[in-house]
Amino acid sequence: MKLETTIQGLRSILDVARMQQKKIGFVPTMGNLHQGHLNLVREARKHCDIVVVSIFVNPIQFGPNEDYDNYPRTLEQDSQLLETVGCDYIFAPSVAQMYGDQSRLTNISVNDITADLCGLQRPGHFDGVAVVVTKLFNIVGPHAAFFGEKDYQQLAVIRQFVRDLNMPIDVIGVPIARAEDGLALSSRNGYLSESNRAIAPTIYQTLKNAEQNLHQGINLVEVLDRMKIALTNAGFIVDYVEARTPALQKIYTFNQDVVLFVAAKLGETRLIDNVYVKYIDSHTLG
Predict the structure, then answer these.
(1) CA pair distance 100, 73, nearest whole angstrom
(2) Are residues 33 and 101 located together in one domain of the fold?
């Protein structure tokens, strides 16, 4: 495994790989890796000849009151983990390497599907994601890129601009990795106090209860209300509890597959999670 910190250095390596007809897989991360990230690398390893992982804390996707300065930088630890799962190259550029020393005048915005959910509370966030991922795609030139489904809205945004801009990249979603108690793995889980860490799995329990309620025929709006009450009673400050179609369109009746979304703060830590609920038409049973 090799560490590269410059665009030119990485491109020169990958140009040779492409000439050799190697399939390149790419996993973009901000570091502070956990098993969810490592699962992305494992999945890339299954499908690709060469696996590149970027570690870059992207300043333009953080809002003014978010945790950019305090976001953990753990490159040495991350490198050790990546070596165990078959990463070939780590790309760990500086901010100056990625953005240069001149003003950035170009932006990439995906409309509609970024207007609510996390986009409502984090204005500009998905523009920052779209810009950095596009830049990384242009630098790495992967055949396939792997993203976790925990950040479902982000995954949808990336798929949208890849399709809209005719990027020749397969965007592959990988199921959410969870702790034994169901909590979705996240770099921000490390911010939780011991007592709040014990409460945090309530998010997943609430989502699974909601899935069960929907299959029992309870109205979707009622199910969402129950979720908000359960999370509030558990001590969360609810940002949103929402239902969307898999394409992120609003939905008010459970008459097709639906994705249930939660974002909520526990102490100072904002947690997100989702569950994809399959619609089973009772008329097709039996």
Answers:
(1) 21
(2) yes
Same domain, 157 and 47: yes
Assign residue 211 the CATH number of its domain.
Answer: 3.30.1300.10
In a domain, 181, yes or no: no
Would you give the distance in Å from CA 133 to the centre of its chain? 12
3-state secondary structure of 46: helix
Q: Are residues 270 and 133 in the same domain?
A: no
Q: Which amino acid appears at position 28 of this protein?
A: P
Please indicate, yes or no, if residue 285 is contained in any of the structural domains.
no
Do 30 and 125 touch, CB atoms closer than 8 A?
A: no
How many domains does the chain contain in total? 2
Find residue 52's DSSP bridge partners: 26, 89
Q: How far apart are CA 264 and CA 228, in angstroms?
A: 10
118 is in which domain, residue-wise? 2-174
Q: Catalytic residues, which ones?
A: 37
One domain, residues 206 and 140: no
- Which CATH number do you get for residue 33? 3.40.50.620
Per-residue pLDDT of the chain (286 residues; tens, 9 = 90+): 999 999 999 999 999 999 999 999 999 999 999 999 999 999 999 999 999 999 999 999 998 888 899 899 999 999 999 999 999 999 999 999 999 999 999 999 999 999 999 999 899 999 999 999 999 999 999 999 999 999 999 999 999 999 999 999 999 999 999 999 999 999 999 999 999 999 999 999 999 999 999 999 999 999 999 999 999 999 999 999 999 999 999 999 999 999 999 999 999 999 999 999 999 886 454 4
Q: What is the DSSP string of 102-147?
A: S---------STTSSTHHHHSTTHHHHHHHHHHHHHHHH--SEEEE
Picking from 46, 43, 272, the residue whose alpha carbon sits closest to that of residue 147 is: 43
